[in-house]
Write a structure and sequence with these properties.
The chain has 2 domains: about 120 residues, Roll (2,3-Dihydroxybiphenyl 1,2-Dioxygenase, domain 1), CATH 3.10.180; about 120 residues, 2,3-Dihydroxybiphenyl 1,2-Dioxygenase, domain 1 (Roll). It has about 260 residues and is an alpha+beta fold. The strands form 2 sheets. Strands 2-3-4-1-5-8-7-6 form an 8-stranded mixed β-sheet, covered by helices on one side. It has an 8-stranded mixed β-sheet with strand order 10-11-12-9-13-16-15-14, with helices on one face. It is globular, with a radius of gyration of 17 Å. It is about 20% helix and about 45% strand.
Length: about 260
């Protein structure tokens, strides 16, 4: 499913890096994924970095704002879900127990968005597309292929997102050794949920994390380290699925690399 011209509502459609050093962040990901950096003016002295492959947007980066830093948030990836109406999605999310971090607002003429926190503490964005649909290439090397929630309460998270987006859950078999829920959106896969692992420090909140496809996880993981990143998990195999690694970029934003198992 490489090139896309629209995203079905309920689909994670746009990964966006919130970083402290936009130029350094853009250079790291450009060198890691071969993305072209296209800086767009965004206001007085501000730019929005669009990452492109084959001339099409696949992700973005911006400098964290003062209020984000003051809230104690570290550099991180924002994860946007396409919706028909940002206003309706926010009303529904609130009725299901979400907190509203930023009520719906227009982003010039490109779309309308809001920032929400689910009942387990994970932050995500909703995106009502206008001129900008989100990523125009997905599911191929250098692009978003999966988005995963690590949560303090898996059951509460499942209930919330099923209620909000109508996702269909598929639970891991009891023999799998760990709880994992795959969510599909109108038959499309691309979302996973898991409980926080026992060793994870209690102060780390629930969070969403993007996976980017690569042709060689081990090679990409080694390259990320050469570029100043840190391998946090793996590379390791997921039986019958593929191979992945979790990486912290030089400023601490966390993402995953994934190579699907050859069919």
């Amino acid at each position: 499913m490489p090139d896309v011209t629209s995203h079905t509502p309920g689909t994670f459609s746009w990964p966006e890096l919130a970083t402290l050093d936009q130029k350094a962040g853009a250079t790291f990901y450009r060198d890691l994924f071969g993305w072209k950096v296209n800086d767009q003016p965004m206001g007085p002295g501000e730019t929005y970095t669009m990452f492109e492959l084959r001339g099409k947007p696949v992700a973005a980066a911006y400098t964290m704002r003062a209020e984000e830093k003051q809230s104690g948030a570290p550099p991180h990836w924002n994860n946007y879900v396409t919706v028909k109406s940002a206003d309706e999605a926010v009303k529904k999310a609130q009725s299901l127990g979400a907190k509203v971090f930023a009520p719906p607002f227009d982003v010039m003429d490109v779309g309308r968005m809001a920032v929400l926190q689910d009942p387990t503490g994970a932050v995500f964005q909703v995106w009502e597309p206008k001129k900008h649909i989100g990523a125009m290439i997905v599911g191929e090397p250098g692009t978003l292929c999966w988005t995963e929630l690590t949560t303090s309460d898996l059951k509460a998270a499942e209930k919330f997102y099923i209620g909000l987006f109508g996702w269909t859950p598929k639970h891991s078999a009891p023999s799998a050794g760990m709880e994992y829920t795959e969510m599909s959106n109108n038959g499309q896969q691309g979302v996973g949920m898991m409980p926080k692992p026992p060793g994870m420090p209690a102060h780390i909140p629930s969070y969403w994390m993007p996976y980017f496809m690569v042709t060689d996880v081990d090679g990409a993981s080694a390259k990320a380290k050469q570029l100043g990143g840190k391998a946090m998990v793996g590379p390791q195999d997921i039986e019958n699925v593929g191979r992945f690694a979790i990486i912290g970029d030089p400023q601490g934003a966390v993402f995953a690399l994934f190579t699907p198992k050859a069919r």
